[in-house]
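INFO batch 0412 | record 1 of 1 | parsing
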Amino acid sequence: MSFANLARLGRERPLRMLLVNAGDAESLTWSGLVQPLRLAQRLLGDAFLLDIRTPAAVAATGADGWHVALLVADEQQPPLPPQLLYAVLDRCRTATSWGGVGAAVLWLAAAGHAAGVRIALPWALYGDTGEVAEQAILTPHLFECDGRHITCCGGAASIDFALTLIEHLLGSGTGAAVKEALCIDRVRTADERQRVALQARFGVLQPKLSEAVTLMEANIEEPLSTDDIANLVGLSRRQLERLFKQYLGSLPSRYYLELRLQRARQLLRETNHSIVQVGLMCGFSSGSHFSTAFGTLFGNTPREERQRKLAAA
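INFO prediction complete | emitting tokens
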């Protein structure tokens, strides 16, 4: 299930969401998540039921028919006691979609609930992954939706995550009203990356992979071939592909293409370069190839992306 597919779940009324606060109520992770959702609740009344509980309260009660359940903790928060954590996770798992925000992403993965699942872990916790790195697929993104699992790295990204949930679960009208109330113009998307995630994790655990990604980021306009990148980092093509598949869930060529397309979307949104110029700046010599690849990844053409910017202006 992608974030876009959460709209199906959003047809449920009333929509029931559980938030379990396992950390500091004053943390950016918690306030960034809960404030937009509380505003949405005020707007929708009984159509959206936001259930906020402590871990102890959740563990003491049975499942309550939640559609979405999230365990939330700031990255500095130490883990809950094992018995309490397992009880909370068991309750959250009864929801249609469930997951964690911030440090809770690591907790649920360490408990064995993210095997083969793409998860957005806070970059500061990458050094604590242990066996989790062998089971889950840790991505550098701000948040992820993989099947029933929803995860967010926390911090400031919690606001973008909450607004994305509101948009898909409760409708674009509610999303627009909440953004206006919070004076937010732009919501970062799920495929945007934590700025230092790759270096923080792979610089220690997989330096060759970190080096390969750095080469890609430095050669957007004139892309290198996979063989060139493998040679430059001292690996065979097969070894490089295995690293990308294991740690990023993608082939080097696909990851590189998405990196260039994300850069192109940023340029379309934030500069006045023509669409042709943007394509060339991101390594696309063919306008049709640029448009097709962009549409496949983002669901709209470069021209439509530029029109959205003009409409917003």
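INFO post-check: The chain has a mean pLDDT of 88.
INFO record closed
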